[in-house]
Amino acid sequence: MREVILDVDTGVDDALAVLYALRSPDLHVRALTCVAGNVALSHVVRNTVALAGALGAYVPVAAGADRPLVVDSPDIVSVHGDDGLLGIAPPGRPIAVDRRHAVEVLHEAITGAPGEVTVVALGPLTNLALLLRTRPDVAEQVAEIRVMGGSLGAGNITATAEFNHWVDPHAAAVVLGAAWPVTAYGLDVFYDPVVPESAITALRADDDVAASLAGELLDRRGQDAFSGRPYLGDAGLVTSLDVGGVTYTEMPVMVDTRPGPTRGMTLADRRSSRHEFAAREPWSPVRVATAVDAGVLTRRYLEVL
Ligand code: BDR
């Protein structure tokens, strides 16, 4: 059983990931920490406690950063709708919000089980950067950091940048540049695992609340003009914790923090001869997902849900 904390900006993607994580027999969710991203922090928290409540999962859900570290809070027309869940309301009673700050929850969980906790960051990296800056001891105690973010090719929110890194480029630079093991699952693989129509129909008809919610979210996403296809997105990353199915390449990476057209762009040194990259600041070695077996991830997601 893997111990995980999901740092989320719920969001359809995050919702699909949270449903999976709370139902996976191989994951133990220690906490869900919230950060502003796809929607404002208040919506993120509301959506996250609603999902946990629908599943009867009494995990700590804590609010963290409501804005990026340095740059202005972006004014975004979210592809997840105004509420973050494309108008879908999880049934039942939301659980109570944990009164602690997300950074405290992360710190306590990581230092309470040194070497055991994997942090899965599915939104802008503001909470994790604050954690590193205020509690640097976590870097040696966390098992690993898995990040949904970045792109070796085109961006999505801009021509050059992936959404999470664009929202808070300084936080992304801090987290990717820190001395802890980081694996990035970016746009090069993000859209590949797609759920077939027949499986979505079956999920929607299922009596189980997690299955039917996942079915509704995927169905709505498939019909949405922005999204276009019912992809797993963040949930693909979380599913890969259980079944693998991802090819990684370690490469030196940095994030462009400058304002302008390259804000949040992932820069990766992909040359074959770069043996001394570790010594050349500010490049940091990051394990980057370069391919996925979409079938493996989609099958596992559907089995668990
Ligand atoms: C990202 O797109 C956003 O809409 C998702 O939340 C995800 O984190 C990929 O850039």
UniProtKB/TrEMBL annotation:
Stored SUPFAM superfamilies: Nucleoside hydrolase (SSF53590)
Domain Inosine/uridine-preferring nucleoside hydrolase: 4-295
Superkingdom of this protein's organism: Bacteria
Keywords, alphabetical: Glycosidase, Hydrolase
Record GO terms (molecular function): hydrolase activity
Name of the protein in question: Nucleoside hydrolase
Pfam families for this protein: IU_nuc_hydro
Organism of this sequence: Georgenia deserti
